[in-house]
């Protein structure tokens, strides 16, 4: 690819494509947005500085913005707000979260809290910690229930630490087994907590929407029930909002769908406006305090000793600040609501014609399954659909028999309708 503007990308032969998955979910406002490209001028002021023993205005501003926008921790007061730890991608934001949770308990005098709990089908990145809490072994072949079980992490299984997982109660239109699925999942959680609750450091999950697991939705009341159970055992809750953050579930953050709050939050992808790599791990001040020295004599042994060369890069922070401002000035959430309505209309039409099953949509994301149920990532439908779509000017990356759209919000209703019509004409009939 040699050029990109708004929702379009051009290859070296001059062919134009619609970026129907927002360049792997990072692009929100469109490519080459003038507000974001202007923010790149931050390079003239300060291009980069080590984020150790130094900070800079763009990082401070972004930390303040995130504290103001992320749903308040319980008992928000002057002493309990969101602290920001910078890194440079989604996997490192997760890695940092896991390490903070682990070290927190070592320093909070409960060193036996070493276990991690995750969701089946959750994906959190490709570094070793993130792989450990993700899917490791190849999944079953004959169901639609988990596309992350593609075996990508299998060669590294011996390197990964042991993690327990509870079933993910996937919801989609017309799923009348959802109440039972949620009850079963909560039952599995209760059993786990009975046995290991007091030895568990943290629970990690993608709230409301599992991305790489197959764009699978779950209901907010289920999440509140999970968080209430975890709170009874004092378990640190990590929300991986690398995908769900920044409007991907129709609200700025997925946590806004819930009454309860996480303790640690991982952000990347949408945070960046789709321009430069950046990762953030938000941590409630109450946890942060366990890492603090006494002021007079900073205790290195208590500090969280983790840093990357490009931690908190000023240019990336400037673009992230500009992207957040666009949410306010460009009515991004309203545009997302309009796109969501169009997705619903188009999915309904495809579903009524019997061309798709398990339709589901939230915010700017729409997904569905086609053909025979299969959890195999490499099912032939994946290749066929990718190629047919590309041949017709649409960039897609389906998994197995699941296809999804997550375009930049600047994609016009006409173009989005055209994507659905083209898909139906060339790929679904
Ligand atoms: C929920 C979630 N967490 C973490 C990651 C890893 O992010 P990155 O690819 O930036 O390392 C991803 C990437 O798809 C993701 O979807």
In short:
The chain has helices at 22-25, 34-39, 42-45, 57-69, 90-107, 128-132, 178-196, 220-232, 285-288, 314-329, 332-352, 380-391, 413-428; strands at 3-5, 8-10, 16-19, 82-87, 115-119, 164-166, 200-205, 209-210, 216-217, 236-240, 264-267, 279-284, 357-362, 365-369, 394-395, 402-405. It is an alpha/beta fold. The structure holds pyridoxal-5'-phosphate.
Describe the structure.
This protein is of the alpha/beta class. The protein has 13 helices and 16 strands. The chain has helices at 22-25, 34-39, 42-45, 57-69, 90-107, 128-132, 178-196, 220-232, 285-288, 314-329, 332-352, 380-391, 413-428; strands at residues 3-5, 8-10, 16-19, 82-87, 115-119, 164-166, 200-205, 209-210, 216-217, 236-240, 264-267, 279-284, 357-362, 365-369, 394-395, 402-405. The strands form 4 sheets. The chain has a 7-stranded mixed sheet with strand order 4-12-11-10-7-5-6, sandwiched between helices. Strands 1-2-3-15 form a 4-stranded mixed sheet. A 3-stranded antiparallel sheet has the order 13-14-16, with helices on one face. It starts with a strand and ends with a helix. Pyridoxal-5'-phosphate is lined by residues 89-91, 94, 123-125, 206, 211-212, 240, 242-243, 268.
